[in-house]
């Protein structure tokens, strides 16, 4: 859309590139304060988010420093993306349905599918697929942009997820998640192997103060988080262990909990670009070792699969428990690593 010059009058700037010029009276203001005064239709928090997203520029140079001070004569371009639709639209996206009745639906979510619309993913999500699959009755359950969604798993995590189809089911499932009575077990492939073999990781989780897109373990703030882990298999010849298959049971359900906790333990998930790190693999002694090292080093997502999900059905008043097999990429990774044990 064409850029428009802002003259101080109120107008809609969504979906436009708006230019604002600094006057003498504005000299020395923080960029977010200056823009908030000149663009009253945008909140300071929204403007701070736009700065962090790299959507503010001066003379073609992106400004991402929230403490940036403006100078008279400078002109800033504000790129405001068009707002998301108020309601997500149904889209015919294939779903693997594990269980479904009038109250709820259990899905085996593939890696790569985002759960609900958000900035950067306005459609093509699980919510869009559920609206097409379940019909108009799902709309509005639990909120406009997240109908039926009680919990999430990351885009690149595969496995089981339950969604509510009516308000009663939504309330019941939400209550169970809040009480930590939902059974959730994940399988993860991690670098190395925890020495203890099994244990519990406890550590409050919150936003990393130096990188707000990442979660981290915090000592004094954050939300309590607890993960129980157990090593199922080790991959290596004993003298050197490249990785291991770990079962993780969530007692709480914080954002990125397993990924952060296993990294905090010193064993980040294979393929995790956010919480992992570059690994030095030993020189391969055989074609099998070379294949295993390649499979681990090039795995394109965090090796995490939500394998077990159990909960109390809101109407049947009995416990439902589901298990789902590993997806093909996860299975191939494990099989490649298992060959290390035969070298």
**Overall domain count:** 3
Name the structural class. alpha+beta
Mean pLDDT: 87
Number of β-strand runs = 16
If you had to describe this structure to a student in words, what would you say it looks like?
Helix 6 packs antiparallel against helix 7. Residues 1-13 have low confidence and may be disordered. This protein has helices spanning 31-38, 44-52, 126-134, 167-178, 257-264, 287-297, 328-338, and strands spanning 4-5, 16-21, 56-58, 61-62, 75-80, 97-100, 104-109, 158-164, 183-191, 198-202, 204-208, 211-218, 226-236, 241-250, 304-312, 319-323. It has seven helices and 16 strands. The strands form three sheets. Strands 6, 7, 8, 9, 10, 13, 14, 15 and 16 form a nine-stranded mixed beta sheet that branches. It has a five-stranded mixed beta sheet with strand order 1-2-5-3-4, with no helix packed on it. The chain folds into three domains: 4-80, Structural Genomics Hypothetical 15.5 Kd Protein In mrcA-pckA Intergenic Region, Chain A (Roll); 85-179, 2-Layer Sandwich (Pseudouridine synthase); 180-343, Pseudouridine synthase (2-Layer Sandwich), CATH 3.30.2350.10. The termini are far apart. It has 343 residues and is an alpha+beta fold.
């Amino acid at each position: 859309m064409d850029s428009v010059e802002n003259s101080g009058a109120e107008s809609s700037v969504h979906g436009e590139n708006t230019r604002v010029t600094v006057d003498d009276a504005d000299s020395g203001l923080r960029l977010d304060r200056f823009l908030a005064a000149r663009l009253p239709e945008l909140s300071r928090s929204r403007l701070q988010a736009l700065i962090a997203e790299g959507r503010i520029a001066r003379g073609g140079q992106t400004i991402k420093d929230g403490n940036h001070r403006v100078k008279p004569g400078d002109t800033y371009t504000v790129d405001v993306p068009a707002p998301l639709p108020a309601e997500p639209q149904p889209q015919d996206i294939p779903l693997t349905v594990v269980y479904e009745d009038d109250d709820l639906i259990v899905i085996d979510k593939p890696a790569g599918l985002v759960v609900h619309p958000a900035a950067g993913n306005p459609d093509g999500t699980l919510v869009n697929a559920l609206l097409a699959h379940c019909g108009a009755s799902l709309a509005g359950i639990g909120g406009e942009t997240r109908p039926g969604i009680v919990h999430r798993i990351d885009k690149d995590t595969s496995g089981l997820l339950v969604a509510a189809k009516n308000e009663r089911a939504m309330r019941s499932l939400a209550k169970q998640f809040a009480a930590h009575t939902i059974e959730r077990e994940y399988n993860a492939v991690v670098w190395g192997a925890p020495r203890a073999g099994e244990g519990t990781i406890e550590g409050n989780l919150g936003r990393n103060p130096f990188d707000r897109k990442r979660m981290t373990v915090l000592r004094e703030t954050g939300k309590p988080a607890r993960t129980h882990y157990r090593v199922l298999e080790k991959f290596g010849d004993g003298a050197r262990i490249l990785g291991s298959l770990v079962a993780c049971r969530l007692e709480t359900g914080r954002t990125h909990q397993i990924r952060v906790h296993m990294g905090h333990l010193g064993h980040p998930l294979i393929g995790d670009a956010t919480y992992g790190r570059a690994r030095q693999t030993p020189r391969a002694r055989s074609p099998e070792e070379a294949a295993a090292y390649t499979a681990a080093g090039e795995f394109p997502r965090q090796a995490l699969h939500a394998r077990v999900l159990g909960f109390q059905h809101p109407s049947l008043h009995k416990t439902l428990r589901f298990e789902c097999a590993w997806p093909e990429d996860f299975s191939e990774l494990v099989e490649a690593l298992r060959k290390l044990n035969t070298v």
